[in-house]
Design brief:
With 222 residues, this protein is an all-alpha fold. Helix content is 83%, strand content 0%.
Length: 222
């Protein structure tokens, strides 16, 4: 593999990391708000509002039902409005964030629901406010499950960047299609696949390490 192709692979990796980082951050922020809202507004929740919970759940399911490649196309005008273009890694962040947020919201919702109802009732019994229960009981208790879920979500976003590369988002996915597939360069195609696999493995290892650290700290103080 010549130096030019090495530079292309390096540039593709940097673009992929750029998209994964910012898309994960924005999707996590949106997904956390949606996931917490779903839990606290459900029937019997801290801020019970079944109608609101149902509306949010319906919207989430609607977005999740769309194939990602179609969602990207639908969001091209929004990307153009927000960042001034519909091409490139920055534009892709808009679609990636919106596409991944509902998936993360459901993961976060399920993680929060794993918290024992007894612990929430204990917090209520001492007069804790809903916000205190959410941020000092619910989220801390669900943290290991949340980290595992978010790790899965980030891996999903990494896979989405490869799909986004098919319509001009850049990154390793675009490189694999333009230089690997369309120009019949098997070496480039294999190299990009290996880099994506390694990236996913690093993300998974990082998530597992954080979970182990949380459990170690928790058991130490208990």
């Amino acid at each position: 593999m010549n130096a030019d192709l090495f530079d292309l692979l390096w540039q593709g990796l940097l673009e992929t990391l750029y998209m994964v980082f910012w898309s994960s951050l924005f999707a996590l922020l949106i997904g956390m708000v949606l996931g917490i809202t779903l839990v606290v507004t459900e029937k019997g929740g801290l801020l019970e509002s079944p109608k609101l919970s149902k509306v949010i759940g319906t919207i989430i399911n609607g977005v999740r039902s769309l194939p990602f490649i179609i969602l990207i196309v639908l969001l091209l005008p929004l990307s153009r409005l927000m960042v001034g273009t519909s091409l490139g890694p920055t534009a892709a962040i808009v679609s990636l964030s919106i596409g991944a947020a509902p998936f993360l919201a459901r993961i976060i919702e399920n993680s929060l629901k794993e918290v024992s109802a007894g612990k929430l009732e204990a917090a209520k019994s001492v007069g804790a406010s809903p916000s205190t229960i959410i941020f000092r009981v619910l989220i801390p208790e669900a943290m290991p499950a949340l980290v595992r879920g978010v790790t899965i979500g980030i891996i999903g976003i990494t896979e989405f960047t490869a799909v986004a590369g098919a319509i001009g988002a850049g990154g390793l996915g675009s490189l694999a299609i333009r230089f690997g597939y369309q120009r019949f360069r098997e070496d480039v195609l294999i190299a990009t696949v290996i880099m994506i696999i390694l990236l996913v493995q690093i993300i998974q290892w990082s998530g597992d390490s954080i979970v182990k650290a949380i459990y170690k700290k928790r058991y130490k103080f208990e």
